Amino acid sequence: MIDCDVHCAPASIDALTPYLSDYWRQYIEGAAVHLHGLVLAYPPGAPTSASDRARGFPAPAVPASYDALKERVLDETDADLVVLNCLTALEAHRNPYYAAALATAVNDWVRDEFLERDERLRASIAVSIAAPEDAVAEIERRAEDPRYVQVLLPVRSELPWGHRSNHPIFAAAARHDLAVGLHAWGRPGQAPTPSGFTTTYLEDYVANQTIAQSQLISLVCEGVFDSHPDLRVVLIECGFAWLAPLLWRFEKDWKSIWREVPWVKQPPSEYVYRHFRATTAPAHLPRDQHAIRQLVEMVDVGRLLAYASDYPHDHGDGLSLLLAELDDEGRGAVLSTNAAELYGRATPGRSATAR
Amino acid sequence: MSETIELSTPDGTESERAVRLIDCDVHAQPTPPMLMPYLSTRARRYVERYGRRAPSEPHTYPRVRGGGVRLDAWPDKPGHWPGSDPEKLCSQLLDEWDVDYAVLEALTSLDCYDQPEVAVEFARATNDWVAEEWLDFDDRLRAAIVVPHDYAELAVAEIERRATDPRFVAVLMPGSAQEQLGSRRYWPVYEAASARRLPIAFHTGGFMRHHGAGPPSSYLAYHANISCVMQSQLASMVASGMFAALPNVRVILTECGVSWVTSLRWSLDAAWELMGADHPQLERRPSEYIRDHVWFTTQPFEEPADPTHLLYAIEQAQLADRLLFATDYPHWDFDSPAQALPRAMSPELRSAILYGNALDLFGFPPFRSEPTPDQAP
User: Fold this and answer.
1) How far is it, in rounded angstroms, from Cα B108 to Cα B106?
2) ipTM score of the complex?
3) Which fold has domain B20-375?
């Protein structure tokens, strides 16, 4: 079993300063730079930011040390491997040099604090979201370390991830057989949704699932998978129940408008099921097993989904409703084998199916 | 006019026919010179000198082939374009498909950034043009009221000006504006519409400069994304408490797809279960507000490989009495009345979508009098 999304984050910038140069240490001290803990994405008091169990431990809810992670997650889990997603690099402001330095420091900290201390741990590579060339440099810096299994990008972006200016990131990931994870939330400072600035957290929270749809469209339309036929993209904390209607529309459009994108050679659904995976959290599903059975008929969840506890976040109990409608093979795929294939380089002796 | 109409009976009583097809999204689109006679001298001079304001240059967006219209919809008359000629539209759409009623939505003010004095004149001019050139031309035509939506008090005044004409059957709003459509800024417009029992038709398009994922690079990505914009707008309308505050509001989401609402209902309900206590404006589950207040036009109807999946979506989102058939004439992605609804659909559901739901929503009479010869143009 593999848990595809467990969070960790430094409790303060002090944890990262040992990995930053004198220039940045002075900058941080002089400008009172601090980490805000992604308070807009995960307000500490919001029920979604931490499960009841996670709230039973001292704050912060996101494990900030190996001991906290061990006690809260590793000692309890059935997972053989846990993929750590540290979102701290999303706190980078508009200074691209700071964004690059912060991402490097985050990766060093995750390595020293966690990866070095437990063989079950794997991690995503934090990268600058300010300049693709810096993201590529960071990928190259980590690629030789097999404990890094994925490049981590936020699902919210200023340019769609499929935009050609971002292609070097996907090329670097493909070159090193790394998955690319698009994780909920991301770039602040512009309207976070396709309808504008939100006034409630509830809209913001749900919008991650909408924005993931836009990224999926972008990645297919701009030919990323035609350039990199083995590339895997993982939608993390972005839901999945929306997939079928999106493909019905997207595919109808493609049949009419394909001349505009001749490099898109197959129907969009073929790209999606070959190249995309989604984590199981959130599984926002109704308490209506009939509807869930219909969903399972419409979305090939046995192929698409990979289990994630998303510790310490709480999205309700939809996953158990979904698993109840899967046969043993489907359950095994969702809980174990899909992630093993996805993160092939994480499991010695196994290789990614894409290879 | 149609070749198939029955003339009035010899004793002069009009024959009646049962309504069988209502098209809820048809575009009457004036060429710029057509509106000029309806503008004041001052507004006309301003527009002739400076043009209208838009948030960016007109060619910022990836372009669609053929201007986004059916090539066979171009009128043979000089000075016209698709949707500007009532005769062409009535013969190519209403007569050819035997449409009983068609709701015209003129997209002249979906982008609304002109100064208020100009914006209100454009809305008024469009409505005048629609009334005189279209509604007076053919009694199968109805229209949505064009409003300068970003200036709520001016929009309300335009609604009140038109609402006495029963041929205006809805209020037209964009699917995207500078602020989210749940914003209280727009509530006076919604309130005025619902006070007049007019549904509010939110039509895809408008501002379209907000992007959670950044601006799309191709028309395909843009078009496939349209449902994402409306998902986010519907979340805004629900989360703002608009439906709770204005219980008589009826909303038609137009040209943005349909089936996506199932998973949006699920995720909003799940979020409400987790956080509803902190959102007192939501007295009920989000899905209940959507169920009670929201209608959808069908075009462009989703086309799953297995058509029964579309029926699942309609069942899951309780849409059987909420779907309104639309062709989107004269645009390129016209849904044909003969082919858009899958054969797997029951006759009852098909009738509801083709005309029954629209009869109920708009309150159209279920029988239509055949035109007498002197009414024909």
Assistant:
1) 6
2) 0.95
3) TIM Barrel (3.20.20)
